[in-house]
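User: Run a structure prediction on this.
Assistant: Running it now.
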Amino acid sequence: MSAPEGLLDKMTGRWVLTGTIAKKPTTHDVDIDWVLNRQYIRIHEVSRDKDASGGIGYEAWIYIVWDPKLSEYALMWLDNTAATDFSSEGVGHAKPDGDRIPFIYSFADGSGIRTTFAYDRTTDTWAWTIHNLDKSGSASPFANVVLVRKD
């Protein structure tokens, strides 16, 4: 199966992300482009909030790739909240689901994270939701945000 045609192209551009993360309202600036011969989508997310020292409150570099052998997307999320050791637990995987990309991170203890990117063709917006999953698979919301184009 080839990558779902054009869905990642709909993600490129300059966006403003608004919504709630960890039950707090937030606004981030998000720039998304293709890199490395159009093999990866690169997302740079920066919050408008500042930390206690006046620096960036939150920053992330996120990479999405299509794996044709597994017919799925893979995602690596690197941010300033904690360093990663690049283990397989740090990579989310998603089977295409129409205009949704529902990534799952599975941890050794049976817990995980579900991060879903959903495109709305009518409004040309993206909704991102993040749910923490306990060992039984029960989900608790962590983030619910919408991306609207700057341009």
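The chain has no helices and ten strands.
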